[in-house]
Amino acid sequence: MSSVSFLLIIGGVLLNACGQLLLKAGTNAVGHFDFHLDNLLPVGLKLAFQPYIMSGVACYVVSLVVWIMALSRVPVSIAYPMLSIGYVINAFVAWQWFGEPLSAQKLLGIGFIVIGVYVVARS
């Protein structure tokens, strides 16, 4: 895999992870909500104009473009498993920023993910 291909994959993964974290920050800022027909428009507008959510969606859009560029260079059987790195990043950032628990069981799972991505990347 060339360095450009690798950077595109990692860039796409990081943008995707960043988008997910921004969406979570946005929902934290908005607070708990239920969708019902009577509040669909107010809640929808509140979410649509929440800055973190808008930034998260922007990250997803840029991530999509970067990912398409990566897929034009790398087989999907190599590129797609790399998305799992996003889970590793999100787990640690969510632990730090949002106070989400990072149990021994999660750490073990993260270890398996890292090993799996390494094995796939080496193939």
The first-to-last residue Cα distance is: 10 Å
Radius of gyration: 17 Å
What structural class is derived from the secondary structure elements?
Answer: mainly alpha
Q: So what's the overall shape?
A: globular
Supply the number of structural domains: 1
Give start-end ranges of low-pLDDT stretches: none
- Please give the largest β-sheet: none
Helix amount, in percent?
A: over 70%
The strand count comes to 0
Strand content: under 5%
Average pLDDT reading: 92
What order do the helices and strands follow? HHHHHH
H/I helix tally: 6
Question: Short summary of the structure?
Answer:
The chain is mainly α.
Question: Overview of this structure, please?
Answer:
With 123 residues, this protein is mainly alpha-helical. It has one domain (3-122). The protein is built from 6 helices and no strands. It has helices spanning 3-30, 40-48, 51-71, 76-82, 84-98, 104-122. α5 (84-98) packs antiparallel against α6. The longest helix is centred in the N-terminal third of the chain and has 28 residues, at 3-30.
Keywords:
6 helices; 0% strand; globular; Small_drug/metabolite_transptr; EmrE-like
